[in-house]
Each structure stands twice: as structure tokens, then as C-alpha cells.
Amino acid sequence: MLWIRPFDNLPPLPSFPHRTRKVTTSTRCQGRVYVLRSFLITIDTEGDDIWSRRSSAETRNASFLPRFQSLCENFGLRPTYLVNFEMATDRGFVEFGRDIIARGAGEIGMHLHAWNSPPIHPLTSDDARCQPFLIDHSDDEIRKKIEFHTYLLEDVFGVKMLSHRSGRWALNGIYADALREFGYRVDCSVTPHVDWRSTKGDPGGAGGTDYREFPEQHYWMSTRNIAIPGMSSLLEIPMTIINRSPAFLSKATEVCKNITDLPDRARRYVWPLEWLRPTGTNLRSMLRILDTAILQDRPYVEFMTHSSELMPGGSPYFPTIESVEKLYRDLNELFSQVTKHFCGSTLIEFHDRVLRPCSDN
Ligand SMILES: [Zn+2]
């Protein structure tokens, strides 16, 4: 089903397979044939400085992506670009994405910002400012937006969309059902240990998803409860977030929360959650995450950034040319450590290596 064809003036699609090229782990590992641990790079590929909540989205950051892609390829790493509406309608990004697919140098997946992804039915008096979650919308609206964006991406890039991350990390059972219905095999919206309920989309809504009881590592998502393993066709690959605070303290501060959240905030101050996501000041933390993953024999680590963070001024984190140069120095150091212990893998390649016992849908 083809909804729109906005890119008829682009070169014809090359004939490439249904999904990114199938390669065995051993060919990617250049000799380390028994190493199966994967390094998954995920990029939320979206407009410039979404944090400033402008009424219209610009996509200048698309022209900064080839540098990042080259860096990844130099280290044998294979990024997954999770693409939202404005980037799927940016001619420069479409050419970039098609080239990656044609060369088998990465994966294109889906990322959905509910506030500007058609069909548009405003939920608040100012959706650009409030940025409602998709889960703030009705069940029917959730399905329609996923349907539209999936077919748009598949039409533009000529491949089946198989991997997904939600906008603002919000997910629920209805959303997961719709992802399965439209053929998605991977979701990576889960952020273990993080409770997003106090982060609002629609000010009158219930807030984001509470992921504190979700698994830290990949699982076939149950069709009955997205927080527990089951046997559905959707593989959840949670973001790598390390919680170093002692378990008994987490429980103790949780109990106090009805009275005051001060102890919990103090705990988080002493032991902040460590994300595998560059901030410009956390290289040591990211390297420590790699060590932890190796020590715990984790099958993967998942790194994330936004496409706009790779452009000076494209995010609050990297406002200047110098800050982006520092980011690239950190990425060089991180990726050079990564290649000693991990294999680069797209989300769907990792999925294809995980055995599913049997199916319940
Ligand atoms: Zn986003």
C-alpha cells in the first residue's frame, strides 16, 4: 500500500534485498569468530533541536550524518537510523539512507514523533510545545499514525521497516500490538530503571512509561504485558542503562516516596543512572559501561544519540563546533575500545541471531 510518493524526482531505487544484507557474525568480527557480543548503534534521526519545541522542524542536521557514518564504517560498526517524519521527507537524508541500504552499511528503521506525524489531529492547544506522546492518543489514532509512517518509510526507502523506537521513549500494549501488526520485529523504546510518569506529553495525560520493573536485556515481549518476556514476534532490545545504586537502597527510598522523594533524589545524585549515550562529559562512564557489559557477559550494548546532536547547535548538549569536535574525539576513543570486544551489528541483525522458542501470535 503506497500512501504518497513525494520523491519521484530521486534516482530509481536500486534492487536490494528485503532487509539489510545477511552476514554472519564471524565475517564481521575479522578473525574473532567466536565473539558474539554486539555493539548496537541507534540514532534517533529527527529534526534540528527538538528540545527547543519550535513550531516547525528544520532538517539541516541531515548533512552532518555522512561524517558519523564514515566514522562507524572505519571501525566496522553498523548504525541503525530510526527515522521520523521530517527526516523521511528530507531529500538529502533520503539519498543518504538509500545509499546505506544499497551498500548494506546499516539499517533504516522507524521513529515516531506523534505531534507532527500524519494524520494530524491536534491533541492539545499547542502540540509543538507540549509534544504529546503517541500513547496520549486514542487506540485508533496510534494505529493510524504507525500505519502512515511505516508505509511512508517503506515507500521512500524501498525496504520493509523492521525496527522501531518510540518518540520520547513512550510505549504501551496498544502501541506494541500495532507494531506487530505492521510487521515490526524489533523495538528499542524501553529504558530500564527509568520512570517517565512525571514527564508529560499532553498536560492532562498520564505521563510517560514507568520502566523500573522492565528487563535490562533483550526479551521477546509478551503479548499480554510489555514488561515481561513472552513468545511474541517482537524482540525488545532495551537501551543500555546501568544502575549502580545498591538494590536495598532503591527499595528503601521507594518505600519513602509516598512521604518524600528526597531520599530517592539523594540516591540518584550519588549513583546517577549511566546511559550509553554521549553527553560531551561522560566518556569515562561510557567506557565503564563497556567493562560492566563484558564482566556481566551481556550479549549486547546499545548506544544511542540523536542525529541533531552531531550538528553544532543542533541540540543543547553540543552547541558549538568545538563541542562537536570533542564529541568526535570521545566517539573515536569509545569505538576504538568497542572494536576490541564487540561486533558491530544493526538491530535486525541482532534480532536474527536471537532464537525464539516458539510463537504465540
Ligand atoms: Zn525523537
Measured distance between first and last alpha carbons: 23 Å
- Name the overall outline: globular
What's the gyration radius in Å? Answer: 20 Å
Number of helices: 12
Explain this structure.
The chain has helices spanning 25-28, 65-74, 85-88, 91-103, 127-130, 139-157, 173-181, 247-256, 262-270, 283-295, 321-341, 347-353, and strands at 38-45, 80-83, 107-112, 163-166, 186-187, 219-220, 235-236, 241-242, 274-275, 300-306, 343-345. By secondary structure, it is of the alpha/beta class. Helix 7 links the parallel strand 4 (163-166) and strand 5 (186-187). Zinc ion is lined by residues 44, 46, 111, 113, 167. The site of zinc ion has 5 residues, from loops.
Which helices and strands occur, and which strands form pairs?
Elements: H1 25-28, E1 38-45, H2 65-74, E2 80-83, H3 85-88, H4 91-103, E3 107-112, H5 127-130, H6 139-157, E4 163-166, H7 173-181, E5 186-187, E6 219-220, E7 235-236, E8 241-242, H8 247-256, H9 262-270, E9 274-275, H10 283-295, E10 300-306, H11 321-341, E11 343-345, H12 347-353
The structure holds zinc ion.
Short description:
The protein has 12 helices and 11 strands. Helix 7 links the parallel strand 4 (163-166) and strand 5.
